[in-house]
């Protein structure tokens, strides 16, 4: 099968914020380069690093189910949770984003039973079209 034999893929849990998905930001290509894969399937929800909070358990279950489906369909090498500064879906301090994206990546590893690495990444705000990736950790 094409996806499994020829392409190294990731599955990314990312924010639905339009700013991250603009052509000029080029998130998928840049994320793929950071993860050393050819591309990433995206599951986009508001404030993904807040999904592990108890009040968002229904959203968490939905996102985890979508990720499990993509893992089964495309056999990715890696999963990644991508949070970002200035997030309306999870409006917390930069330090809290770092802690929360780590917690969410750990919970994703546990919830999905994914055998490969699960990384936590924070997108650092420069402007609406300028974001840098800051690796936070890996499980």
Structural write-up:
The radius of gyration is 14 Å and the shape is globular. It has helices at residues 2-5, 27-35, 57-74, 94-112, and strands spanning 9-15, 39-45, 78-84, 118-127, 130-138. It is built from 4 helices and 5 strands; from the N terminus they run H-E-H-E-H-E-H-E-E. The chain has one domain (2-138): Carbonic anhydrase (Beta-carbonic Anhydrase, Chain A), CATH 3.40.1050.10. By secondary structure, it is an alpha/beta fold. It has a 5-stranded mixed beta sheet. The longest helix has 19 residues, at 94-112.
List the helices and strands and how they pair.
Elements (H helix, E strand, L loop, with lengths): L1 H4 L3 E7 L11 H9 L3 E7 L11 H18 L3 E7 L9 H19 L5 E10 L2 E9 L1
Parallel strand pairs: 1-2, 1-3, 3-4
Antiparallel strand pairs: 4-5
Quick synopsis:
The chain contains 4 helices and 5 strands. The protein has helices at residues 2-5, 27-35, 57-74, 94-112; strands at residues 9-15, 39-45, 78-84, 118-127, 130-138. A 5-stranded mixed beta sheet has the order 2-1-3-4-5.
Task: Identify the notable features of this structure and list them briefly.
alpha/beta; 139 residues; five-stranded mixed β-sheet; Beta-carbonic Anhydrase, Chain A; 5 strands; globular; 36% helix; 29% strand
